[in-house]
Amino acid sequence: MSYDPAGDPYTEPEFGTEIDERESEGRRNILWGIVIAAIAGGITVGTFAAAGPGGTYFIAYGGVAVGAFQIIKGLINASGFWRLVGLLALVAIAVIGFLTYQASQDTGSLYNEIEVGDCVDADGFKASCDDRDGVYDVVGTYQYGSDASFPGDTRIELDAGRHCPANAEWYFTPLGEGWSQGDRTILCVTER
After folding, report:
1. Dihedral angle, C-alpha 74, 78, 80, 85, nearest 10 °
2. From CA 77, how far away is CA 79, in angstroms rounded?
């Protein structure tokens, strides 16, 4: 019988026990990584839905990165099916992360895409000109420069009065929160 350095009887571990423990640890890491990334991804989507394009997502992206790191850690010890699961999860995280990042960088505005001759509804969204009720014709636009700082509501109202054509009955103006997302257009409209 052999003894360990402390003088206790030493028994050989069964063949494969260490490999099984590492495989289990790899599976756990992959599963925890998927859970962490899914929760952080949900937070990212929720934040994007609430804040819209141009929002700040650092905390949520950090959570996704931690989840991805956990999966990578699991790939070291996993094999076979679990390695495939981990790789697919990493690909999904990368694709979803890229698409979310692209969407968060979209600073376009519906007002910026509307031109004279288009029609809008009562909220200023592009509408079909075939509709008659609650639809307005766009008879003019005024565009601020993309690098302009927000001039304030009073100044925008003055600019709308000055730049809209005489036949315009009212106008839609960019708000402060829209300005930070790239909305720089005043729409001059008339009722149909």
Report:
1. -20
2. 7
Query: What length is written for the chain?
Result: 192
State the residue for tokens 């949900």.
42
Please list, in sequence order, all residues whose beta carbon lies within 8 angstroms of the beta carbon of residue 65, skipping any fewer than 6 positions away: none
Placement of tokens 């260490």 in the chain:
18
Element (H, E) at 99: helix 81-104
- Residue that has been written with the tokens 């790899």 in this structure: 26
| pLDDT tens-digit series, residues 91-123 | 988 887 777 666 655 544 456 678 899 998 887
pTM: predicted TM-score of the whole model, two decimal places = 0.46
The pLDDT assigned to 166 comes to 93
HSE-up of residue 169 (Cα within 13 Å, Cβ side): 9
pLDDT by residue (tens digit) across 35-46? 888 888 777 666
